[in-house]
Design goal:
DUF3221 domain-containing protein; DUF3221; OB fold (Dihydrolipoamide Acetyltransferase, E2P); alpha+beta
């Protein structure tokens, strides 16, 4: 009986180790689609360039708006800042519809700040 319990325990531990190894290898990616409403460069230790993407709005909703109006719009819809590299920052323009993929990690601010894994221009 002790052998059966010992074998069962070993098999249980091996199964648990295999499952943990597989789950840590996964890389879950989230998607956010919206309009680029603002671009900003944060000065500091590292020069960080960000775009603000707001969902469920149209290109015309951000044209001619003040920073205050853009921030208010971001508070009314799903929105997030995405860190982008220098080339992306130069190429992307306000009013462009994009689809962004990100890992799920974010800084808890309002709107949240995330790193863009991939960006696709939709329009």
């Amino acid at each position: 009986m002790k052998k059966v319990v010992l074998i069962f325990t070993i098999l249980l531990l091996l199964t648990a180790c295999i499952e943990v190894g597989e789950s840590t290898g996964e890389h879950k990616v989230y998607q956010h689609e919206g309009i680029i409403a603002k671009k900003q460069q944060l000065d500091g230790e590292r020069d960080v360039k960000q775009i603000l993407v707001i969902s469920e709005i149209e290109r015309d909703d951000v044209k001619g708006k003040t920073i205050s109006e853009i921030n208010q719009l971001a508070g009314q819809h799903e929105a997030a800042y995405y860190a982008v590299d220098d080339d992306q920052f130069e190429d992307l323009t306000i009013g462009t519809k994009v689809e962004i993929y990100w890992t799920g990690e974010q800084l808890d601010s309002n709107p949240p700040q995330r790193g863009a894994e991939e960006i696709h221009v939709l329009e």
